[in-house]
From TrEMBL:
<protein>
    <recommendedName>
        <fullName>DAGKc domain-containing protein</fullName>
    </recommendedName>
</protein>
<dbReference type="InterPro" id="IPR001206">
    <property type="entry name" value="Diacylglycerol_kinase_cat_dom"/>
</dbReference>
<dbReference type="Pfam" id="PF25382">
    <property type="entry name" value="PH_CERK"/>
</dbReference>
<dbReference type="InterPro" id="IPR050187">
    <property type="entry name" value="Lipid_Phosphate_FormReg"/>
</dbReference>
<dbReference type="InterPro" id="IPR016064">
    <property type="entry name" value="NAD/diacylglycerol_kinase_sf"/>
</dbReference>
<dbReference type="Pfam" id="PF19280">
    <property type="entry name" value="CERK_C"/>
</dbReference>
<dbReference type="InterPro" id="IPR045363">
    <property type="entry name" value="CERK_C"/>
</dbReference>
<dbReference type="InterPro" id="IPR057465">
    <property type="entry name" value="CERK_PH"/>
</dbReference>
<dbReference type="GO" id="GO:0001729">
    <property type="term" value="F:ceramide kinase activity"/>
</dbReference>
<dbReference type="Pfam" id="PF00781">
    <property type="entry name" value="DAGK_cat"/>
</dbReference>
<dbReference type="InterPro" id="IPR017438">
    <property type="entry name" value="ATP-NAD_kinase_N"/>
</dbReference>
<feature type="domain" description="DAGKc">
    <location>
        <begin position="127"/>
        <end position="277"/>
    </location>
</feature>
<dbReference type="GO" id="GO:0016020">
    <property type="term" value="C:membrane"/>
</dbReference>
<dbReference type="GO" id="GO:0006672">
    <property type="term" value="P:ceramide metabolic process"/>
</dbReference>
Length: 551
């Protein structure tokens, strides 16, 4: 923070005109405000803009959108700023570019205003990026990535004095490989124009690159990962855009561009997913086995449908009425800190996340060092007992954040936190088709999807998953979605707690009537046979393994 004296240096006050109306404009360092003054010198409406939310200052009368135009008058200047609009619904606010064109009494005064405003921006908004590396996926979502970037985002970046190096990708994983191998000197951040898959590429690239440079093996589950120095900006142009929706509250390229320009940031929990050979993948939104894995696998065959492929594949997979055997072990998070049923909603500045950050990283002074001790915390984590459950599941989902998106505005776990170091494990036991439909349908409303007898949710620090022995050899691909094996009857589910490695049975899970009624009446309609193994959906990518360890 600067001292008051330094703030005063940036201050300025004068009369300015907008058309024939006179305004009293005041810059106090942290804020810029203008108040209309009537003929009798009485104050009318005031507009107050934090300097941190000024997007740019230009000499002359300037327009940016839909096209840039400059009327170069020597007594005028234009200020662009973040204007909140109510159009985003109740989940988040749409941001729009506000613009005001002022006329001054003299050119000297005009130059003073532009100089002071720019100096205030430098001093009071130091986290803004100057140089960005932008990856556009031309095939994401409705295939509008290029158009969205060039017509809506590039003009805003230019206005804000951001120079961007743009790469339109020609293949999957190009962005990830670029981040892993190419020179990144001089960039203040990376941006993806695309969906969750593109975000995931950047996430993998940046985490991997940072570990390489630190001489660490990211595939080693015991290694303490190093913090990534670059932030990721997301311009939504995908099919689900869940990471954007869950962090910003709306899926809107202009809102996201403005957040990037003013240097906003939001830390996110990242879950590492190791297979048995310790190959690591990362997830921030949905790690899902069963229904969501099958929907993804099915949807890949129908990419041409664009975003609709998920609804179509959702219906196909729902009608195929599958459930899978699995062994799930989880390490519960401290129930005194928060709960997935506590009806809270995590937003920027959330107190649960702040307290968790303090607790997990007591010596970190900025969010950049958040990750440094993250994994070491787990490797020394001796508190808590692993809980183990086995049975048949419709789906097993782990989400590190709410995973809200347009399909499900409150998300997979409405009270999950963006950056508290935990994820929510949702176990949906096998049930009859209408029960499962009820569960799915509740995601589209404010009804509690966890308030069903065949659904459990646990806030966890780590999860292990495997399929009962004898089943893992059956590759999903071989089965081609429909194996010759007919599912055996429903298994009894058993809760166990592992203490010092030994498994103790806690309770024999009573099979509820919901679970017993698993007779697949729709099965006759659409599939006669069912595979015994599903796949993992890791933020929209299929994982090539079923046995995993996550933390
Ligand atoms: C009756 C209506 C039920 C609507 C149920 C809506 C549940 C929606 C839950 C969405 C959760 C999204 C989580 C985010 C995951 C992302 O990391 C990932 C990458 O983008 N997206 C997907 O995997 C994409 C996953 C997309 C899953 C879509 C599931 C659609 C189910 C439709 C079921 C229809 C039943 C019809 C019966 C005749
Ligand atoms: N030029 C390209 N050609 C083919 N695939 C690409 C290309 N660039 C990126 N990809 C891949 O396309 C996949 C999907 O992209 P993206 O996430 O942008 O859109 P989406 O799948 O429609 O949206 P969402 O992930 O939000 O559901 C990503 O996993 C990415 O690796
Ligand atoms: Ca979390």
């Amino acid at each position: 923070r600067r001292t008051d004296d330094q703030n005063m240096d940036l201050g300025l006050e004068s009369s300015l005109w907008v058309g024939n109306k006179r305004y009293r404009a005041v810059l106090t360092g942290w804020h810029f405000k203008w108040t209309e003054v009537d003929k009798k010198n009485r104050d009318k409406k005031t507009v107050l803009v934090p300097v941190a939310e000024v997007a740019g200052v230009e000499e002359g009368r300037v327009e940016i959108l839909p096209q840039k135009s400059v009327e170069d008058t020597d007594k005028d200047f234009t200020v662009f700023y973040v204007k909140r609009s109510s159009g985003g619904g109740s989940y988040g606010l749409l941001w729009r570019l506000g613009r005001i064109q002022f006329s001054c009494a003299s050119r000297v005064l005009r130059d003073q205003w532009t100089k002071h405003l720019r100096a205030a921006l430098k001093t009071h908004s130091p986290l803004r990026p100057h140089r960005l590396l932008v990856f556009i996926n031309p095939f994401g979502g409705k295939k509008k990535g290029r158009q969205i970037y060039h017509s809506l985002v590039a003009p805003l970046f230019e206005l804000a004095g951001i120079s961007s190096h743009v790469i339109v990708t020609e293949r999957a994983n190009q962005a990830r490989d670029h981040l892993l191998k190419k020179d990144l000197t001089g960039f203040d951040g990376v941006v993806c124009v695309g969906g969750d898959g593109m975000f995931s590429e950047l996430l993998h690239g940046l985490i991997g690159r940072t570990q390489q440079e630190a001489g660490l093996c990211e595939n080693d589950p015991a290694v303490a990962l190093q913090p990534c120095p670059l932030h990721i900006g997301i311009i939504p142009a995908g099919s689900t855009d869940c990471v954007c929706f869950a962090t910003v509250g709306v899926v809107d390229p202009v809102t996201s561009a403005l957040h990037i320009i003013i240097g906003d940031s939001q830390p996110l929990d990242v879950c590492s997913v190791h297979d048995v050979s310790a190959q690591v993948r990362y997830s921030v939104s949905l790690l899902g086995y069963g229904f969501y894995g099958d929907v993804l696998a099915e949807s890949e065959k129908h990419r041409w449908m664009g975003p609709l492929r998920y609804d179509y594949s959702g219906a196909v997979v729902y009608l195929s009425n599958r459930s899978y055997s699995g062994i799930v072990q989880y390490l519960p998070a401290d129930p005194l800190l928060s709960s997935p049923r506590d009806k809270t909603r995590c937003l920027a500045g959330c107190s649960v996340c702040s307290r968790s950050t303090e607790r997990l990283f007591p010596h970190s002074s900025d969010s950049g060092s958040l990750y440094s001790s993250h994994f070491s915390q787990f490797s020394t984590d001796s508190e808590g007992e692993w809980v183990s459950v086995e049975g048949r599941f419709r789906c097993v989902s782990l989400t590190c954040m709410s995973s809200s998106c347009a399909r499900s505005p409150l998300g997979l776990s409405p009270s999950a936190h963006l950056a508290d170091g935990t994820g929510d494990l949702i176990l949906v036991w096998d049930t009859h088709p209408l029960g499962f439909l009820k569960f799915l349908y509740r995601h589209t409303s404010t009804q509690d999807q966890f308030d069903l007898p065949f659904v459990e949710v646990h806030r966890v620090k780590a999860v292990r998953f495997s399929v009962p022995s004898g089943r893992e050899e059956q590759e999903y691909e071989e089965i081609g979605g429909f194996s010759s094996e007919i599912d055996e009857g429903q298994r009894e589910c058993v809760d166990t707690v592992s203490r010092n490695g030994s498994q103790q049975h806690l309770a024999q899970r009573a099979m509820t009537s919901e679970r017993k009624a698993a007779t697949p009446f729709l099965c006759g309609l659409c599939c006669k046979k069912s595979p015994s193994v599903s796949v993992w959906n890791c933020d929209g990518e299929i994982l090539p393994f079923t046995k995993i360890v996550c933390k």
